[in-house]
Records
---
Amino acid sequence: MKLIGLLPSSNALFLDVVVVFFFFALFFFLLVASWRILGSLTGTKHLVVLENLRPAAPPPEAVPPSKELGEFTPLFVAPPPKPAAQTPGEFTRGFQAPQGPAPPASPRVGPPSIPPNTPQPGEFTQMLQAQRPAAPPDPASANATQVFATPPAMAPPNIAPHAPPQGPGEYTQMFAKPASLTFGQPPGEIQRWAEIEVFFATDREATGAASPNTFFSGNRNNGELTFGTCRVTIPRNHRLGALESPRLIKFEFAPNPQKHVVLLSVTLRSEQEFFENLSACVRSSERTDALVFIHGYNVSFADAARRTAQISYDLGFHGAPILYSWPSVASVESYAVDEATIEWTVPHLKLFLKEVATKCGAQIVHVVADSMGN
């Protein structure tokens, strides 16, 4: 067996008190700052009144306007009028209509004559000119039949049909809905938390309550071990080492499996059924190992079960997580009582560890003890 010690967890209630004290201090600071700002504004008002009581300064003497213009003023003086337009120049006369009546147009016969010195169209212009036939073809001729004939129907291209999809790819499978639904998961939605089965043995006294959080008390029983299993959920946004619980500072009043580590149920089992299920869980694991967690002082049964599931989840443990819960009072003032109770539970713990080592079939049994449970 391997023994591992863990440090005790922080108290969430102390953090809530610190946060509330911080908000009160911030409110007091804002109140004092507002008072100081109002005082400064009132002092400024008195200064303005005193400034108004001072005698007004005499107006400055009027400066006679300058008779001469500076070097910057002529830029804004209106320019002199432009002279009247003269006769059109050589370029303008080229686009003016000829004076006098136009000569009568003679009837055009044949193609227009082109002066001998007229340049021919260039290579680019000849490419863009329309190629028109001199005369329409005769419909009776073979050439016209070819021109006006209906083109034959074109056969559709020989395109191979697409192969049917083989299945979702690697990227699609990452976002696909899981094949099976876990407990507490709404149908048709993606799993939002993980569920872990924790085996437990305890010598606490049962309360008879139906709620899993108050199923066992902090009192001792008759000295016989009680066996069973419980189911605990771990949220998807779980932080390593944290035991997420409802916080008043966040206005959370009930546990939510999507946000908190929640103890869902507690099921009692006989000793024979307990070790049979434990052996099956160990055999189905990769390394055929088991982990036994022993909690410390000031811990209830519900918190111990939640902590066991959290440790198994954070370690990526694939074996069987087992909780041994001794009857801690779960109170800060009951340190002496828990110290006496841990001495009383030592024989029961030794017997249970021997049975786990011999009956569950595990190759390795990891023992994790915290605080007073070490």
Note: Residues 194-373 form one domain.
---
Amino acid sequence: MGTVRTGKLNYFRQLKIAVLGPENGTGDSLDRNNRIAVFAFAILPGLSSNFNSFILLASMVWGIYCLATGRLALNLSRSDRLVAIGMSIYPLVMIASIFINPPYSEELDWIFRLLPFFSVWLILPRMRHSPDGRLVPLFILGAGIGMILTFLFSLLQIIFLMPRAEAGTSNAALLGVIGVLFGGIALLNVQSPRSVEQRIAILGYAAGLGCVLLSGTRSAWLVIPVHIVIFLWYFRKHSFHLSLRSLAITGSLLLAGIVALGSGQILDRIQALQGDLTTLERSDGEITSLSARIALYKGALSAIRKDPLTGYGPQNRMASVLAELPDNIRPQLPFSHVHNGFLTAGIDAGVIGIAALCLMLMTPVIGAWRKEAGPGRDISIALALLLVSSYVITGSFGIMFNQKALDPIFAYLVALICADRGSTGFAPVVRG
């Protein structure tokens, strides 16, 4: 037992060196800053999503400085430029829509919210300064650690009688999206030869699912089977160091425990949906979560039909939707979006906005697919599919973009997916 404990302590000491660099201060400061930023970005989303925005903004500012002073070159490949352009078209369309559609309101605030989508131009050259194969495993490990900490935070909230866990996100639905995405990313570390990293991978995935269940985010439940298909594809091509029997037993026990802990939230959310369906059948005018969404969808579709080309601008989003609804319903719909990312883009910028959104959602897959064949390409495709499926499925029933946590996460992961060459092999973070 003492030997095992000593081994774990040695691992975390080595992990500290892997993230922060040698204790004697030698090494590349830009590479060290990359490692710290990537590791922190992976850990923090569920604990305090505001820090992710800060990390992305700081990375962008530092990228501008490094490019301006010649410390970095804009060494983007043709594939990188396709991705960066695809990411940039969406915010450019939205900015154009803001100025095409008066009345104007908080234009600078809306433009500032769109800045994360331009970040690939600035942070990808910086990420490329680190050796191939260093940042992606660090992010995957950080996602596992972050999910474990976030689950413990969420569990405390449920113990203290919060109906739905939010952790540090201030929004239960946001926790569900982060839990299913980062838990899925964490599980990719099962292929690590280090036993500690394997355990963090399994615990991180289970913790991510726990966050999904404790948050009661029903749309995130729909993502789980899609992610399982992605895992089956990826791990069929890449072996992992756990035996199937060990993985099955450990996974089953963890899943049973997580379901037991989250059973109250699961039953409550199922009963709430059944109640909403019953109310919808009565047609007595009562507004529930489900009927509010249906009303928003109808209002959005009606508004888009009236101005399908350019939309109304994000500053006029809800006013244009509510104008299509009966007067008695409007006061009961105090939302900032229509609970569907595609309809929201259509309201903001018409069919051009929807097309720009679809192109942006394709960029991580394009960036991964265009790499040369190899393990680096496979893990990039897995990351891209986990990312896009999480956003598309949950965003079809809730918020997708124009959110201070989800926008930086998407942009940062797109850059990370593009960072390594396709031939790069997967290696553990602690290699000693």
Note: The chain has a mean pLDDT of 86.
---
Amino acid sequence: MGRAVTGQDASLTGVWVRTESCCRQTRSSRLAAVQQGLLSPLYFEGSRRYVKRPSLTARCAMNLQPIRKQTFEDIDFTAHKFEGYRSDIEFEQCIFLRCSWSGSKIDQCRFDRCQLIDCDLASAALNQVTFIDCQFARDDLSEATSFRFAAASASKILQGNCSGVDFSHSVWHDCQFLDCRARALNAKGFSCRKTISPTVWVDAFTAERCDFSFSDFSDSQLSSSELIACNFQEVSFCAADLRDANLADCELDNIDWFNARLTGANLEDARFNSLDLRTMDLTGVRISRFQTEMLTNPLGLIIID
């Protein structure tokens, strides 16, 4: 594991150092760097000073190699000096403790086997960000990372452990959660909707083989979502919008469906025990023949073959 980088001594942008004894060869190499677009051609005759160019070319040149096995503590990645580390960069097996991206834009970044503990991504804008096999809280679910009010698009959480994380009132449009352990989430107000205008919007979200048990999805907007082979046992879908959602092969036992909208949803091969025909509008809901008994049991009916 590399040394820890803290908020006091962190300087990830690189520094050009020059002394009065530098030789012509050094100056020639810097001139070549100017010609390649890595340095700004701000050249002062009196001091022979070059200034590093904060350009996309320079950032890409710096970020060709992933950052591996580093520990970052109390880093405010929203600061201007870390701008190059919010775009087109890959972190591998890094640990982030109490770091903040709150309100910033994170674009085309990849976090591979990283730990993000007690980090703040509230109100962040994530575009094409991928988290692979990452952990977002301690093993006891303490110090969980927050995505509260974040807005993500075309992003992925793959094979991660995000149990206990705060996803409340966040938007994950055209995103994927695959093979994740995501128990006891605060996902109240979670949405997959991209609003085009007051009357036009697009809903898109995919979750497959995820464990969302004991989570709170109340007031969530999940219409037209693909939620396949997921575990939603003991989940609250109170006032959630699941119209036309695909819940095939999901575990749906002991759900709080109060005021949930489920019309047009696909429940084929799903297991459920609390859908009540007396209180819920199940118009257009698709089920298999063997699931009929699951619907009639709450009514006290006995079906005889």
Note: The radius of gyration is 25 Å.
---
Amino acid sequence: MISSRPDSKISARNFPKIDLGVQSDQTAERDNLELELQNRITRLNDQARIFIPLIALCLIVAIPIWSKSLTRFVILLLSPFVLLPLVFCVAHLTLAWRGVIKAKARLRKWDMKQETSEVEPSSRIE
């Protein structure tokens, strides 16, 4: 059960007036940025779980060819059956990594904006 306290010091005028609409918008924006960052990190982890073993497998298969002749190894790497999947894996990992970096930067920028907006104008150095 909820009990009420008969305290005369607590009233609606004693509480600071806060614009709850603006505050909820700000928290929702930060939550969206954090959710986007988590999604991008999850996507990067999923792609890395698939692509890194594929890249390692390509290198493991290429080691015997590399040990025999460097020219054969280069010819093998330039083959479209090896080059295209390898470039595909590396490109996907690079794009996912860039997305994580951008999301972190947006979150950092938002935090800095919030810190500067919390500082009173009279206390700022101009």
Note: Residues 32-115 form one domain.
